[in-house]
Amino acid sequence: MKEAILRGILHSDWTRKLHEQWTPRPSTKDGKKVHQKDAMEQTVSLIQAVWTIFENQWSQRNEILHGNDNELLVTNKQQKFKRYMEIRTNKYQMLRRCDHHMVEHPISDVIKWSRQYNMSAILRNLEEMHKQYLRELKIEEEGLRRPDTGILDRYLGATHYEEAWCS
Q1: Would you state the pLDDT for residue 90?
Q2: Element (H, E) at 22
Q3: Cα(first)–Cα(last) distance of the chain, in Å?
Q4: Which of 25, 64, 106, 157 has its CA 20 to 30 A from that of 85?
Q5: What does R_g of the chain's alpha carbons equal in angstroms?
């Protein structure tokens, strides 16, 4: 029966009980009848009230989670922007030369990026590129042969970093 009310369906047991309990108001002193909702109208009013309360709570929930003044989103965006600027400022120590283009977006564009989507995707890529840079530095420091840069180099026969297109 609870599900029926939430779905907007007039459950037959609910309506029957209201009809059993419903008594019309007595007429006024001057004999006029007072309009009173019958059991079916009361049930409809009850369901409308439940839905009104639910819709108000849901819109408030959406404003809290997705509104522009959400503290968590603002803090998260600031942290991501700070990390992006850190990588941008230190790109020569954090990224390979061929990856520098990833941090050369105009700052005005970076600030406008919508709802963390672009910033999150770019930061994931930048962090992966930074890890690759660190792996290559470690290999270079150990004096080992530099790794090939991928399937294209294997296909073309390049085996050393110096022969690769991203130096």
Answers
A1: 92
A2: none
A3: 70
A4: 64
A5: 33
Asked if 46 and 84 count as a contact pair (C-beta separation under 8 A), the reply is no
112-152 pLDDT, tens digit per residue, is 776 555 788 888 999 999 999 998 888 887 776 555 555 55
**DSSP label at residue 92:** H
HEC secondary structure over 35-90: CCCCHHHHHHHHHHHHHHHHHHHHHHHHHHHHCCCCHHHHHHHHHHHHHHHHHHHC
Q: pTM of the prediction?
A: 0.47
Choice between 12 and 87, residue whose per-residue pLDDT is larger: 87
Side-chain-facing half-sphere of 98: CA atoms under 13 Å: 9
Question: Rounded distance, CA 46 to CA 22, Å?
Answer: 15
Contact between residue 47 and residue 5 where contact means Cβ atoms under 8 Å apart = yes
Q: How many other C-beta atoms can be found within 10 angstroms of the C-beta atom of residue 95? A: 20
